[in-house]
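Example 3.
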Amino acid sequence: MDPILAAVLFAIIKISIILLGYVMLFATVLTWLERKYSALIQDRIGPNRAEVAGLRLGGLFHMIADPIKVLFKEDFMPRTENPIMYKMAPWLSVVPPMVIFAVIPFGPGDMFVISNAPLGMLFIFAIAGLGVYGSVFGAWASNSKFALLGGLRATAQMISYEVAMGLNLVGVFMIYESMSLQGIIVEQGETLWGFLPAWGLFLQPVSFILFMASAIAENKRAPFDLTEAESELVAGYFTEYSSMKFALFSLGEFIEIIAIACIASCMFLGGWQIPFVDATGGIILTSLQILAFLFKVFVLVWLQMTIRWTLPRFRYDQLMKLGWLYILPLSLANILATGVWLYFAA
Amino acid sequence: MSNHLVDSRNVDSRSQAPRFAKLWTPTEVDADEPGLMRVQMGPSHPAMHGTVRMDVILEGETIRDMDVDIGYLHRGFEIQAENATWTQVVPYTDRLNYLSSLCNNVGYVLAVEKLLGIDVTPRCKWIRMISAEIARIADHLTALAAGALELGGFTPMLFGIQAREEFYKVIEHLCGARLTTAYTRIGGLRWDLPDNFEAGYRKAEASLKKNLADMDKMLTRNRIFYDRMADTGIISQEDAIEYGWTGPCLRSTGVEYDVRKAHPYLFYDKVSFDIPLGHKGDNYDRYLVRIAELRESLKIIDQCFKYMEPGPVNVDDWSIVLPPKEAVYNTIEGMIAHFKLIMEGIAVPKGEAYGYTEAANGELGFYMVSAGVGKPWRVHCRAPCFALVQALKPMMLGEQLADIIPTFDTINMIGGEIDR
């Protein structure tokens, strides 16, 4: 077989396995998990009604029942000047977070990553920047004032926090001297002072906290969900969406939760590295490493959910203040401190 | 019995909020100006509980002008009351402030009793106090929980609702209904406390204490919550008084006025409790005052249970209270008294009276005129929320759109009461 064709075929197989088998499955489970977990926090029972052949499994079937229900809902469309924009918006908020997974390494080597790009992180920033179009187009094309306000908030919020999010990772790049995710992960396999894994979390703790904060803001989830603040703006930029288009916005949000967890675990938690095991190869070790990555992603997803269900929401000006007056200067200071440290350490 | 400040922020400075520029401003801003946007919040909007419409003119997110449009829940309470006997009005009062129906029941019958010039039995007074305080707790919990929800804190909201649920169970145990209580009667009560009432109440009390502690932990010292609540929706003492504010909202500005203390009714002069006071009149003060009042209400109920003694709950006067069924079936006097009360209503002497009580949101007044027949000639309800909502516009001018939400919640507007 032609080697190029083979490589393309192989890539397609990897894409389908990662996107369908991992991302979509995880996102679907999250739709159930978030409701179940919030129920746990709030002393409720949570979803438990969907039943297949007498089995309920704690409402696990809701993750199948809900998409089916949503698909059969009336797809209402407001009178708008921009029907194409209106229809495009949900996709623009689902596809970019999916594309991020192209450079996420799920295991060691070239085997478990769709594209082991040397500038993977730049690719991620470029793609994440597209996410704002989904909400802006949706808001603009909806022809509704509440949606418009939500879209305006989304624009300002996502652009401000993108800057902060990028700057927070600069410290990590400086320490590991790489912008490829696989390269950064490999560097994190070492052990510091004999007892601490050389994870970004321990070398760049400030970055980790700020990155998580700005990433959640980028994803527009509570406490940064003022773009869809239901008490102020009804549902923000997707007020006018219904049926599967509406569900796509939520799906995009869930995929982005996973994407954030993946990026953060690659940058700060050593990706697929198992602490104190600085080795690769062998089927058993590789599968353990893949599981380790899954576990880390899960922990970060859990962290995001706990934050979501604990904190109230910011106000628009407070959010801007937090982004520009606190997170941005702090991350710049962090870069400076890292630079000074590296200079004297070298 | 010293009154305490709920808030320790800048207590030494005791900075008073600035007065409003104008007490009432007509709509002056033209929404068609470039850069302005008119947004209709409500009547069907998630934050506009109780169905109200806000016509807001925004410049970006800043409120340039707004108008609160009430009337979507108008039921004609006052005109209904003129077409019902004095007793039949009691169920209508349930729908006034539907979060604390028992307070309204108590307030209404006290006003009628003032007109009648009668005094109810001691046990009846204690029970009325217990029921009014339980309703106050339920009301404050709803206001606090909804406030958390509207700021995006779904979890603290459910904690509050969980505690409220226990109190609704107590109310259900008391009178068989959760919302449409209609528990009081002129000259007494529908019936005495049910068996095991105190045990049920203690369970609710335990739930309240636990959930309140949880809510407190999640909100009071939460930086985001504090930033949203503090220094938003400010009103000065003078403005609050000029607008006729009463209740927890007035006390949040530091004015020490509580009908229960200033003009004691029932046995409120026999129990000891504090009036929690704020000093800034912002949303955070109103939140803290409500939390503190919950604890005061618990104190009052404890004392009621302590001082309460067995005895009759109804006055011994068949021209006011329905005679017992045996008397109706077996004696001619009982039969006639029953017939007169049911067919004609209580013969309230000619005159007028204004009865006022401290309901959950403030002074709930009933001004009533009797023509000496079984039906009221006129009943006017002085709803506390009505005065509170009037001040919403001057409070909100120049603030952010998002500030409407906590402000509207802490003043706790109740549609049923405002539209009567």
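Chain A has a mean pLDDT of 83. Residues 3-41 of chain A form the longest helix (39 residues).
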